[in-house]
Design a protein that fits this description.
Elements lengths: L2 E4 L4 H15 L5 H13 L1 H12 L8 H9 L3 H18 L7 E4 L5 E8 L2 E5 L8 H13 L4 E5 L9 H9 L4 E3 L3 H10 L9 E3 L4 H10 L4 E2 L7 E6 L5 H12 L6 E6 L2 H15 L5 H11 L1 E4 L3 H11 L3 E5 L4 H4 L7 E4 L5 H6 L25 E8 L2 H17 L3 H11 L2
Parallel strand pairs: 1-11, 4-5, 4-7, 5-6, 7-8, 9-10, 9-12, 10-11, 12-13
Antiparallel strand pairs: 2-3, 3-14
Helix pairs in contact: 2-3, 2-8, 3-8, 4-7, 5-6, 5-7, 6-7, 8-9, 10-11, 16-17
């Protein structure tokens, strides 16, 4: 069931092949996605309802305030309190993400300014297929609220004719007033291009299945997107002091998300690898989402036996995992040398599941190796940066000749002339 690899001269080539194969398996042909998007663009709500009926057995687009209140009343008080706690912790953490513009003036009297302004309208996609996630609402909406986005719109597909009450309550906490009960490719297209009933947004954020992710790729450029995230990932580093049952539970916590999820265990202890494998098999027996987790573990789980911390650091930076748990006693010796990762959990009590819900930092993170060049969702993703340039007469007369030289070197005579015409006496 679990593939065991030892680090040798061919290991890194094999590792990259395995990681690439998973990325390829999580791809689909674009034809169906393009077809639906184009139909939404042409026919609007008519096409939107057509695909809602086909894929979600849904005959409506927006839920009413009355339905929102009714849904919230059905929610267990313990769940409400947990969402309240998560909201407060996520809000408090993200409020530390400061964004201040600046103004400066050089010795020639030229003035420059850098200013942050919020995106006007964003759309949040909240999955509703195999599971519904109130935490997704909070993690995507709260940074936008702090950034002072003017309008937040949420889409989430119906499950058996209704929206998940936890999702609705989380949206209520975030003061989201426009909630659409639509999902899939058609929901992404409606947000990107607008219909009579669904307002067009400037940026789309939030996770989804392979069809949603592919649709986001297709509309990017017409609207902004947060990232093209794939299925969940976790890499765990364990040593001989680690608890194999705890490690197994953490690997399962990501495997149960999606059949394409990936769980990786790295250890210098053969005994821990062996005991964790047995613990995995035992815990899977009692898992409600056993079928999904078992497929993920069978096809994409890796156990890696290493000999040194140097190898561990290199392997992690090569994988660039979404989540990393350093469930070892000496995590300080590793953490500062690991640079390609979405979020790091330090020590044996720092299970990734806490980060998914209410630790505070965002759980929308780069996957499939994209942590090599990108970061998790933050307040900054909902802000635009504008620069202002105010040149003085002395400034253009002093700096202009160098611009003319460079423009002429690039054979852009129109550029050089626009400077010459201002400084010629």
């Amino acid at each position: 069931m679990i593939k065991l690899y030892r680090v040798n001269k061919n290991f890194y080539r094999k590792l990259n092949n395995i990681l690439s194969l998973r990325r390829e398996n999580f791809n689909i042909k674009n034809s169906i996605v393009i077809k639906i998007i184009n139909e939404i663009k042409r026919k609007g709500d008519k096409a939107l309802l057509k695909y809602e009926k086909k894929f979600n057995s849904n005959t409506k687009i927006k839920i009413t305030n009355k339905e929102i209140k009714k849904s919230i009343r059905k929610l267990d008080i313990k769940v409400k309190k947990s969402i309240d706690l998560a909201y407060n912790r996520i809000l408090k953490f993200h409020q530390n993400q400061k964004y201040n513009g600046f103004q400066t003036k050089d010795k020639l009297g030229n003035k420059f300014q850098y200013k942050f302004v919020p995106i006007e309208k964003i759309g949040i996609y909240v999955p509703g297929g195999t599971a519904s996630y109130p935490s997704t609402v909070l993690m995507n909406a709260i940074p936008a609220i702090i950034a002072k986005v003017k309008k937040i719109i949420m889409v989430s597909p119906f499950i058996k004719g209704k929206l998940n009450p936890g999702v609705v309550y989380a949206a209520y906490k975030c003061k989201i007033k426009n909630i659409y009960c639509i999902g899939g490719i058609q929901a992404i297209a409606a947000l990107a291009y607008g219909t009579k009933k669904v307002e067009k947004v400037d940026k789309i954020v939030g996770p989804g299945n392979i069809y949603v992710t592919t649709a986001k790729k297709q509309v990017f450029g017409d609207v902004g997107i947060d990232m093209t995230a794939g299925p969940s990932e976790i890499t765990v580093v364990a040593d001989k002091q680690s608890n194999p049952a705890w490690i197994a539970s953490d690997l399962i916590s990501q495997a149960e998300h999606d059949k394409f999820s990936q769980s990786i265990l790295i250890s210098n202890s053969s005994e821990i690898l062996k005991k964790t494998k047995y613990a995995l098999i035992k815990q899977l027996k009692f898992l409600p989402r056993k079928k999904i987790a078992s497929f993920s573990l069978k096809n994409y789980c890796l156990f890696i036996k290493t000999n040194s911390n140097k190898e561990i650091i290199r392997i992690i930076n090569e994988i660039a995992p979404e989540h990393l748990e350093l469930s070892i006693s000496n995590y300080n010796g590793l953490k500062n040398k690991i640079t390609n990762v979405g979020s790091v959990f330090l020590g044996k009590y720092s299970t990734e599941a806490m980060g998914d819900y209410l630790a505070g930092p965002n759980h929308v993170l780069p996957t499939t190796g994209s942590a090599k060049f990108s970061s998790g969702l933050s307040v900054y993703d909902f802000l635009k940066r504008i620069s202002y340039i105010n040149l003085s007469k002395r400034g253009i007369e002093t700096l202009g000749p160098s611009v003319i030289t460079l423009a002429d070197f690039e054979n852009l005579k129109g550029h050089s002339n626009s400077v010459k015409i201002r400084i010629n006496k």
